Amino acid sequence: xxxxxxxxxxxxxxxxxxxxxxxxxxxxxxxxxxxxxxxxxxxxxxxxxxxxxxxxxxxxxxxxxxxxxxxxxxxxxxxxxxxxxxxxxxxxxxxxxxxxxxxxxxxxxxxxxxxxxxxxxxxxxxxxxxxxxxxxxxxxxxxxxxxxxxxxxxxxxxxxxxxxxxxxxxxxxxxxxxxxxxxxxxxxxxxxxxxxxxxxxxxxxxxxxxxxxxxxxxxxxxxxxxxxxxxxxxxxxxxxxxxxxxxxxxxxxxxxxxxxxxxxxxxxxxxxxxxxxxxxxxxxxxxxxxxxxxxxxxxxxxxxxxxxxxxxxxxxxxxxxx
Length: 322
What we know:
This protein is an all-alpha fold. The chain has helices at 3-10, 13-26, 36-60, 64-88, 94-105, 109-122, 130-137, 140-152, 155-158, 163-172, 174-203, 205-227, 232-255, 260-271, 277-285, 291-321. α2 packs parallel to α12 (205-227) and α3 packs across α7.
């Protein structure tokens, strides 16, 4: 493997600010970011990437390649939580297994954005319609997780799941709603909309991403202590499952003839884990699961692993195959 890719990715300003945030916690600095600001920035990132993806989708049109790519994204969003659940059942109860499986079946938009920045650095082209895949992969894992709970526990007979509430949370939670809506607006307004919003959605993007990752570093470092309660199993799981998912995604991307840039984004989507939408849904619908398991593993292990080592590693694998 070319370790200069890891070094180059590490020296990316947003990534360095992520680790600056972690360092601030480790040295007990009083650095703190008021809660409304990260929320505002996360909404900005979702709006910008969704809008840009919609514009790119308008430019490319709904071609056969787009339909095949989005179909593959849906297949992986359904398959990953199912096989992940059975891997986890060897060590955890069905509630925690389902919550973790749903978390790893969904995606991390920030990891996706960081991978896009990595491709920009390497000057590798990718299609904007991959954002549509991002939007499609956010919700199915929540549904699959709840189905797994319903099938593999006896809770259904005691406490029937409120499916209307589950579906509402899966498809209309704030992040999914804004992302899908931004894709639709970008698609409708096309080039005219892009030129109108470009100073907001393009020029400010990496500055906001950098500040957001600084906050993510603070949050991730605080979560590391909770992982000490879970032992080495979840730490190993948080590293090995992303690599397994990425490997399957890379071979699938090769089979459907994605470009190397699109293949990396697809692999990163499959290898990432949700730490916003799915945890919010699991807290609401599976209170028997321990949040320190699925939030800490996704945020304190998988997220930093992916942005530091995973993305260059997946790119190396793609380089070997393409």
